[in-house]
Amino acid sequence: MRLGGYAILEKLKGGPMKISELKKDVPLYGSAFDFVLSGLMLAGLVRRFEKDGEEYVELTELGKTFPIYGFWHHRRWW
């Protein structure tokens, strides 16, 4: 699940995305996607908002400074 969270954060680096588009681009399906997205919102890394009848998500200020690859790349060296 951790990699799914990193994938969502990486996709959102480009700016806000429709949730429907994000679901297509991230390798998480069904309730796994909802679970990871909820966890990121609870951690304060992303926020959900509505615009023109569509639901969007974007990185918060904390999410923009979160070291996305720090832990994962460090582990790969061991």
Short description:
The chain has helices spanning 2-12, 19-25, 31-42, 61-65, 70-77; strands spanning 17-18, 46-51, 54-59. With 78 residues, it is α+β, with helices and mostly antiparallel strands.
Based on secondary structure, the structural category is alpha+beta
Compute the CA-based radius of gyration.
13 Å
**Sheet with most strands: strand arrangement:** 1-3-2
Q: Which spans of ≥5 residues are poorly predicted at pLDDT below 50?
A: none
- Order of helical and strand elements: HEHHEEHH
- Give the beta-strand count: 3
Strand content: 15-25%
What is the general shape?
Answer: globular
Mean pLDDT metric? 85
For the largest beta-sheet, the strand count, sense and barrel status come to: 3 strands, antiparallel
Intertermini distance = 20 Å
Count of alpha and pi helical runs: 5
Q: What level of helicity do the residues show?
A: 55-70%
Report on the structure:
With 78 residues, the chain is an alpha+beta fold. It is built from five helices and three strands, in the order αβααββαα. Strands 1-3-2 form a three-stranded antiparallel beta sheet. β2 (46-51) and β3 (54-59) form a beta hairpin. α1 (2-12) packs across α3. The longest helix has 12 residues, at 31-42. The model has no long low-confidence stretch (mean pLDDT 85).
Present the secondary structure layout:
Blueprint: H1 2-12, E1 17-18, H2 19-25, H3 31-42, E2 46-51, E3 54-59, H4 61-65, H5 70-77
Antiparallel strand pairs: 1-3, 2-3
